[in-house]
């Protein structure tokens, strides 16, 4: 018997302003047909103006497409004034959900001093706009800056206590690592819903980029076999990458995950494929 109906949600990123929004708008219209529980919009950690990128796209998704929207907000390179301004911009367009982030520290770029950790940002938002819903990021295999998983989970507990209503994980390919993390969170007293971040691997370049940036993520044997076997066969690599993600999602849903957050890479076809293969699981009504 199932305990709950999980959510299926998507992540998108604002395109480089020089490229324009036509492609992402078309993709979002296709995603709208899949009725996601929410869509989250990433934010650049230094490079682009958040108002012209994240806030504008979040406004479109929330108000034109009428899909609940979460705006990401990495704060390490922002001042309190800039964060207050961004919160006000989001409030004005009715986007009142923020994924509160520290953001990555960019080598050679000196951070601002106002927000050292995501927890500092959460406390600030709680003060400035207590009606906002705050979501946090978490790392089933530990954050790379952490000396060990225990201290990372202790810090996560502080973050949740500061005011997160739910968490979204970094992508992972080994569900066992996620279940182990969930158990440790429960033991640490973290009791908010944890949404599992799933990224289907669609091509070799994406896989190589990932392997370089996510060194701490365990790659199970069957995942590595896909990358090796279809190294020079893009069509099969894409098919196997999608099937692998579907397999992960089926396992997560049957183990009562709170939600699956799909890293779509702005690709509506990916979202459509996953939705087609799994939507019956997300619409499943709990047995009384
Ligand atoms: P924090 O929660 O502050 O943690 C960072 C590190 O500091 C961890 O090692 C933690 O254990 C430690 N720490 C936390 N609190 C304390 C404390 N009180 N004392 C000592 N140590 C502490 N980046 C972007 O730039 N834009 C995005 O849109 C974006 N979206 C993301 C979405 C998701 C779901 C995830 C998982 C990550 C995303 N990131 C994004 C990346 C994120 O910004 C980086 O991983 C960043 O390095 C950490 O951010 P955080 O909010 O998790 O940091």
Automatic annotation (TrEMBL):
Its EC number is 1.5.1.54. It comes from the Bacteria. It catalyses: (6S)-5-methyl-5,6,7,8-tetrahydrofolate + NAD(+) = (6R)-5,10-methylene-5,6,7,8-tetrahydrofolate + NADH + H(+). The gene is metF. The keyword Oxidoreductase applies. It comes from Streptococcus infantis ATCC 700779. Keywords: Amino-acid biosynthesis, FAD, Flavoprotein, Methionine biosynthesis, NAD, Oxidoreductase. GO terms for cellular component: cytosol. GO terms for molecular function: FAD binding; methylenetetrahydrofolate reductase (NADH) activity. It is an enzyme of class 1 (oxidoreductase). Pathway: Amino-acid biosynthesis; L-methionine biosynthesis via de novo pathway; One-carbon metabolism; tetrahydrofolate interconversion. Belongs to the methylenetetrahydrofolate reductase family. This is Methylenetetrahydrofolate reductase.
